[in-house]
Amino acid sequence: MEKNKNGLLAFALLGLAVGTAAYYLLGTEDGKKQLDRANDGVKSLTKSIKELSEKEAKRAAKLAKSAKKDLNQLTDRAKNAGRDAIDKASSKASEWANKASDTAQSAADKAEDVASKAKSEIKNA
Known about the structure:
The chain is built from two helices and no strands. It has helices at 2-27, 29-124. α1 (2-27) crosses α2. The longest helix is centred in the middle third of the chain and has 96 residues, at 29-124.
């Protein structure tokens, strides 16, 4: 029972404090001026926060755009480096294949010459 009385008393005091503050702010000229100043302060703070948020949002968008551009450039460089490596490997492989083909042709020509000489010597013998 004692708890209920204390709770009721605390609630009544809180209501009285809120009522007094409301009367002061709304019922007196000085209170109205204070309330207007508080409203102006809240509006100014809200405007400052909004401007700061817009400024930071633009800055973040600019950074994101720059990062995307850098990433695209790095991707292009990687692709070009890969293409260059493939082109070099292909060129070397082609060069080696040509050398192998030339060597094989040369060996075939020599074998044909040796065979022709051998046939000629056999006919002459």
